[in-house]
Amino acid sequence: MQPQLLDGRYQVERLLGDGGMARVYLGRDLRLNRPVAIKIPHSHLMTDPDFLARFRHEAHAAAMVSHPNLVDVYDVGQDGDLHYIVMEYVAGSTLKQLINREAPFAIPRAVRIGEQIARGLHAAHRAGLIHRDIKPQNIIVTDDGQARITDFGVAKSHLSTAMTETGITLGTVDYIAPEQAQGRPATPQSDIYALGVVLYEMLTGRLPFTGDTPVAVAMKHISEPPPPPRRYNPQIPSALEAIILRALAKDPAQRQRSALELAEELRSYEQLVTQATVVNPGIEPLAQVRPAPSPRPAQVTASRPAAIPSPRPATTRVPRQEGVGCGVFLVGMLTLAGVLAVVFVVSSGMLNNLFSNPSRPPTTQPANGQSQSTEVTPSPTVVATTIVPELVGRSDGEARQLLQQNQLIPVPSSEHNRNVPQGIVMTQAIPAGTVVEVNSPVSYTVSLGPLLVEVPNVTGTRQDIARNQLVAAGLKVNVVEEPSQTVDEGFVIRQSPSATLRIPQDDIVTIYVSLGDVIRFPEVIGRSRAEAEAILANTPGLTLVFVDVQGRDRLPDFDRYAPNEVVSAARVIGNNQVIGINNNDYIPRGSSIVLGVRAEE
Predict the structure, then answer these.
(1) Which pLDDT does position 56 carry in this prediction?
(2) Within 13 Å, how many C-alpha atoms sit on residue 240's CB side?
(3) Is 519-598 in the same CATH topology as 385-447?
(4) In the CATH hierarchy, which fold is given to the domain comprising 519-598?
């Protein structure tokens, strides 16, 4: 339960949202009498000095930026062991809520929202702050259409470049830039990519990449081109589509150079829609079916006077008899060539050969005037062959040597394989024992061993976020639940293997998830009353408050139990109600226990 008053100034009223690292409450600044949003980290992070240092640094960085499209940070404070950030409270809906209800948006509306987000990002980038988690859930849109970026909880600033990132979570994979998905540092172009995804979603009502698992989506961001948004919404003009696809380029260098450039492209596009005379070489006009051009009234601009059209001549038909055209000349030349060809064939005697016995071999005329039959017999071609050796299971060096000894050309390739040791041939394109010509190329594949990935640090994060991060890294997850007096329920206590180790892809990482401050109820049901009372007396955190002795009138199957045997147990909850429990159940620490015992008779 959070305190109701922080530093005697900020009244905490109600919970607004619960994130991976902090909760956000609606509050009131009693000194200035205005509503505020108060972000308070989860209790188990309050004792993490690295997290608290980042929490303060990022808050100070965000507080230095003031812009109409960013949620302002008012104050950073500490009340005892409790750290908090006070922010501007913005009433409205998240962009995600609007997309779910209303997408696809009208084009002017999507363009205006996208431009505002880009201008807010530019202000943050100028201050050295990269958001790293731009998504519709982190954009608040007011009733009058103003977009405000919030939640710099995973932001990275120049103030914290020398600090570790323990506990920092990656952005949602639906909007993650390829370089972030590959584990490379985020840049302003990473935020531009995420905004490109948001624009895509506003205009189509869908994401460019989807998949069954987060890692499948991340791999598509890395390697697959996005489907053109006009495929899903043909009303999107091609000029606007080009802006979005540029923001979604895999190579950050091919995206807009800055968020300001993206904002100006969107602004120029909007002006292009409303002012047909604006010329912008970088943006194509609306891609719609264009009617046949019609004469435009003369316009005078500062750069070039309008041309006055000359009188249009009357249409006349040229008589066919006038002059000898190029076509007649060509026909004449082709006819002449044909005649000459016929004369040549007749004079050369080729016709005689054509109509002679086709089975007769050609003859030659010797010097004595007698004909002599001649036939040309081709000499047989000798092809040298060799046998393809067995390569699978040998080292790359052995494979090369064998192929060269057999007068074959090695063509190696390589790929990762967790089951074949590094440097060993896994497959060959031509099976062993095949007879081929010498100097033939033989392709084979050499194992690079397992693909190693770095284990993300998920300790201290919420279970679902931890699972997504591990799966996105190409790892499998095993969950073990256990009690913890220091870590909130549902958050990761520790992990194995530990963070930053490099292990084979698809290996299992075990995360130990907190059940909260609970204890296991001891095995007292089925024991005698005396044994049960002694066990509970020696179990810290549990208090026996009542023993309910039950006779035949209250205990079904009375004779099944021994006298004074414990037949049931329960814990007391609010309003003196009880809820049944079994041996080995986890129950809250400090529970009051009631035992049901069979009467002696």
Answers:
(1) 79
(2) 31
(3) yes
(4) Trypsin Inhibitor V; Chain A (3.30.10)
Among left, alpha and beta (phi > 0; psi -120 to 50; other), residue 64 is: alpha
Q: What is the CATH number of domain 93-274?
A: 1.10.510.10
Give the active site residue among 48, 50, 133, 507: 133
pLDDT of 3:
60
* Per-residue confidence (pLDDT) for residue 129, from 0 to 100: 87
- Cis amide linkage into residue 104, ω under 30° from 0: yes
Q: Measure the CA–CA gap between 122 and 114, rounded to whole angstroms.
A: 12
Q: What are phi and psi of 372, to 5 degrees?
A: -140, 130
What angle in degrees, to the nearest 10, is found between the helix axes of 107-126 and 259-274? 150
- Give CA separation, 215 vs 149, 181, 458, 467, in Å: 27, 9, 16, 11
Residues 77 and 84: beta-carbon distance below 8 Å: yes
| Per-residue CA distances from 105 to 174, 217, 404, 594 (Å) | 19, 24, 65, 60
Which pair of tokens denotes residue 486? Answer: 């220091």
Strand pairing category for 508-514 and 476-482: parallel
Compute the distance between CA of residue 471 and CA of residue 509 in angstroms, rounded to an integer.
Answer: 10
Give the pair of three-digit tokens for residue 465.
């976020």
Q: Please report, for residues 43, 59, 482, 489, 543, the alpha-carbon distance to residue 485 in angstroms, rounded to integers and kept in the order given.
A: 11, 28, 10, 9, 18
Take residue 356 and report the two structure tokens written for it.
Answer: 């002679």
454, amino acid identity? E
Choose the CATH number for 385-447 among 3.30.10.20, 3.90.550.10, 3.20.20.140, 3.40.390.30.
3.30.10.20
Q: Output phi, psi for 377, to 5 deg.
A: -105, 115
C-alpha 7/C-alpha 10 separation (Å) is 7
Q: Of 443, 528, 513, nearest to 482 (Cα)?
A: 513
Angle, helices 238-247 vs 188-204, to 10°: value is 140
Please tell me the pTM assigned to this model.
0.51
Which CATH code fits 452-513? Answer: 3.30.10.20
Mean pLDDT by 10 residues, the chain (601 residues): 79 84 89 92 82 77 85 88 90 93 95 97 90 92 94 54 34 84 87 98 96 81 94 94 96 96 90 50 39 36 36 40 44 54 51 45 48 54 88 94 95 91 94 95 93 91 92 93 92 93 93 94 96 95 91 90 95 82 94 92 77
Cβ neighbours, 10 Å, residue 577? 9
Q: How far does the chain reach from its first CA to its final CA, in angstroms? A: 48
Q: Which residues contact 409 (CB under 8 A, 6 or more apart)?
A: 403, 439, 440, 441, 442
CA of residue 399 relative to chain centroid, distance: 40
Q: Which of 571, 572, 549 is nearest to 561 (CA)?
A: 549
> Would you call 133 a catalytic residue per the annotation?
yes
What's residue 495's pLDDT? 95
Return the CATH fold of 5-88: Phosphorylase Kinase; domain 1 (3.30.200)
Q: What pLDDT was estimated at residue 6?
A: 92
Name the residue ranges covered by the structural domains of the chain.
Answer: 5-88, 93-274, 385-447, 452-513, 519-598
φ/ψ region of 460 (left if φ > 0, alpha if ψ in -120 to 50, else beta) reads: left
The C-alpha atoms of residue 395 and residue 426 are separated, in whole angstroms, by 10
What six digits make up the tokens of 306? 């309008």
